[in-house]
Amino acid sequence: MSDGAVSTSVPIATGPSATVQLPSSTGAGLAVLRIALGVLWVQNAGWKVPPDFGRSGDRGLYFWASEAVEYPVVAPYSWFVETVFLPQLAIVGWAVLLAEVALGAFLVLGLATRAWAAVGIIQTTAIALSVLNAPDEWHWGYILMGVGHLVLLLSAAGRTWGIDGLLRPVWVRSPGRVARLMTVLS
């Protein structure tokens, strides 16, 4: 490279051998984005407090999910939140809490990063559909979260400073189904 930057092989496409030479700072930047999004999910799990997830005080997960009903973005989603999600909050709340903690943990560790980035896109979409029309909500935050997860999905960000990068060579050489699956998910 003529600019004197150190280069490293950072995968930006799918497939076991899909790599391109990019500056090492690109891989580091992707790792920082992955870790920051992971920390964001773990930190935000703090307001999803069992056992009632905020129902008794009209706060937390209950409050924010209720925004989907009070300020609908998409009518069928509002109906789902009102008739399925909120009545079953004691059960669904645990699923949301566990999914978001797992999402954050796996992103921080850089394990199955592409799969968890897809989960991040889905979860970000669900949150956005709950609060986009709520007063004083900054819609760009959800767009940026979604784009951040899309970048992780497309860039295989777990291969830099992540477990994906450590185990991928083993997965690529292994003939097993789980190894092939992890190769794709990494």
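the 2nd protein, sequnce then structure:
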Amino acid sequence: SNGSPSMPSDDPGQMVHGSFEPPSGLVLSSIARNKLLILVSAVVVAAIGTAFGISRPSTYTASATLQVGQVNPNSPGFYSYVTSASALATDFSRSVGAAPVLAEVQKKLDLAPSTAVARLTGEPLPQSPAFRVIATGPTEAAAVGLANIAAGAVVTYESRSNTADPEAETLLAEYKVASLGLQHAAASLTRLEHASRSQRSPAATPPNGLLAAKAERATAAAKLTAIGAAYTAAVSSEAPRAGLVSLVAGASSATNDRRSKVEAFGFVGLLIGAVLGCALAVARERRRARPPFARSIEVETQRSSAAV
């Protein structure tokens, strides 16, 4: 009849419009009437997320600090030194992934290079001639040990790679060859001298072969002396091996990410629980808003379907 109350429409367009129509929409009214349900849902799911975060394994992080060169604030070129050393520190920080560094880590910790490089990071300090070697591990001891051993390996690697003169190695090889040549020339001269003494009188003129052997020995000796002087100069011109990169502070403790994981999973659980609570509140209000006659028809329909 015209005086009977109108039944709620099941049209999807009208349902969506009514749900989000402020301030009397279904969602807002459902939230206002079911605050306790939403609160309980959010707290329960947040507790589940927190428990999950607690159960996750923690990752420990430790760091060792290295310095490039020697800092002297009273030096006239201190500021230019800091600028250039900062650039070097940025370059040197990348050496944590160098093959010699990873080989040293594998030798001392029995850690595969692929695993070690994933747990190591070099981080230059801004506007500073220093950088940090950061290591992660499943335990505090593992992270601290990896950071200290990797830092020591970086010091050794940078000292060797930046101070060794390749010319010195070449000269050393040439010096060994020249030394053997001098020994052969001296041995040949000795043999010729013995043969000459046994075949001629003291007043006789030395044969041409003996004179050539003496000249060969003198040439070999001069060559050896020259190469030795060049090798000494090359070695003397090398930068000192100590002090290029030095350890400022080794790793003594480590931090873990347990708290951040627990907070992150707890917050995500809180959001999910709040959304789930709102959905339950809306479903609850929709069920309440349906007329008793419609609910009875639905029950009868379900019974008929079950009987069939």
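The mean pLDDT is 77. The chain has eleven helices and five strands.
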